[in-house]
Amino acid sequence: MITSTSIDIEGHTFTAVTVCLPKTTLLTVSNDNGYIMCGALDVGLLNTQLQDRKIIAGRAVGVKTIEQLLQAPMESITLEAERLGIHVGMTGEQALLKMA
Fold first, then answer.
1. Both ends of the chain: CA-CA distance in Å?
2. Whole-number mean pLDDT of the chain?
3. What whole-number distance in Å separates Cα of residue 78 and Cα of residue 43?
4. What pTM does this model have?
5. In this predicted model, what pLDDT tens digit does every residue of 71-98 receive, in sequence order?
6. At 96, is the secondary structure helix, strand, or coil?
């Protein structure tokens, strides 16, 4: 099952997507500039093989719901996210606000 909802963070609209798969759930929250995601995100791949795409993204681990993703600290971020002022340890919500 896939669910998609709009969420508002301090007046900025983001899209939250939950994909329920066997034995795991994929979670993302995004806007036109970037996204945060659960542990399934391969930040290393984005920073190396897809570096030319300049993807702004962050990863949180150990989350099972969108609310947890918003509150969890970023465990890793892309180089482009870092250039935008996002850093490891920042909550998902704080990272998204930098992308707004």
1. 28
2. 96
3. 6
4. 0.93
5. 999 999 999 999 999 999 999 999 999 9
6. helix
- Tokens standing for 19? 């994909």
Q: How far apart are CA 43 and CA 17, in angstroms?
A: 19
Strand 57-59 versus strand 12-21 pairing type? unpaired
- Exposed, middle or buried by CB within 10 Å (0-12, 13-18, 19+), for 57? buried
100: which DSSP letter?
Answer: -
* H or E element, residue 41: none
Q: Tens of pLDDT along 30-49? A: 999 999 999 988 898 999 99
What local confidence, expressed as pLDDT, does residue 40 receive? 87
State the Cα–Cα distance between residues 57 and 41, nearest whole angstrom.
9
3-state secondary structure of 42: coil
Distance CA 24, CA 15 (A): 20
Amino acid at 51: Q
